[in-house]
Write a structure and sequence with these properties.
heterodimer; A: about 110 residues; mainly beta; seven-stranded mixed β-sheet; 11 strands; B: mainly beta; six-stranded mixed β-sheet; about 60% strand
Chain lengths: ~110, ~110
């Protein structure tokens, strides 16, 4: 019972480098989400995909792009990493939107130097 | 602007104490409020409260929704060191969850 799987778990980038964070879920969920978590700020939504083939911006989308590759997979891309993107990134999925009980992956800790 | 505010931001108690965590919200078209527990890694789901289910209980944890006061509380009785975690409150709005800042609970032996 894998649930939501994120790769990689850790990553260090230099300013200006690009990378893609991968997320896959095996619960046949329709909706998927990307969040970032910074100290004292809870979880902030970057992008989400309510269903396969759709994506929408969340609260903090600048500097990111996403791809809903299929129903299982939702990737997050940083085209030109900046130190302000140092954070812990979580992917989540839900059968939702109603009820919107989201299940989270273990997170990716990203440092941009 | 929709927002969710939790208090306190951090709390230190001793094993056996009872704690109450607070969550208040200003969200249009409220549908549900969720509580999550976050230990080292991923947040894990605890409760969902709605207009038709304003009180939930699981073991030593319980939660109540007050729609009139636009708030919720999470109670933990007879705390244990394993309850140490960040507790997150979120409100569903327009197919998304809006999270509060979290309350960091530390339970000392």
């Amino acid at each position: 019972n894998a649930g939501v799987t994120q790769t990689p778990k850790f990553q260090v980038l230099k300013t200006g480098q690009s990378m893609t964070l991968q997320c896959a879920q095996d619960m046949n969920h329709n909706s998927m989400y990307w969040y970032r978590q910074d100290p004292g700020m809870g979880l902030r939504l970057i992008y989400y995909s309510a269903s396969e083939g759709t994506t929408d911006k969340g609260e903090v989308p600048n500097g990111y792009n996403v791809s809903r590759l299929n129903k299982r997979e939702f990737s997050l891309r940083l085209e030109s990493a900046a130190p302000s993107q140092t954070s812990v990134y979580f992917c989540a999925s839900s059968s939702g939107p109603i009820p919107n009980i989201q299940y989270f992956g273990a997170g990716t800790r990203l440092s941009v130097l | 602007e929709d927002k969710v505010v939790q208090s306190p931001l951090s709390l230190v108690v001793h094993e056996g104490d009872t704690v109450t965590l607070n969550c208040s919200y200003e969200v249009t078209n409220f549908r549900s409020l969720l509580w999550y527990k976050q230990e080292k890694k991923a947040p894990t789901f605890l409760f969902m409260l709605t207009s038709s289910g304003i009180e939930k209980k699981s073991g030593r944890l319980s939660s109540i929704l007050d729609k009139k006061e636009l708030s919720s509380i999470l109670n933990i009785t007879a705390t244990q060191t394993g309850d140490s975690a960040i507790y997150l409150c979120a409100v569903e709005q327009g197919g998304k969850l809006i999270f509060g800042q979290g309350t960091e609970l530390s339970v000392k032996p």
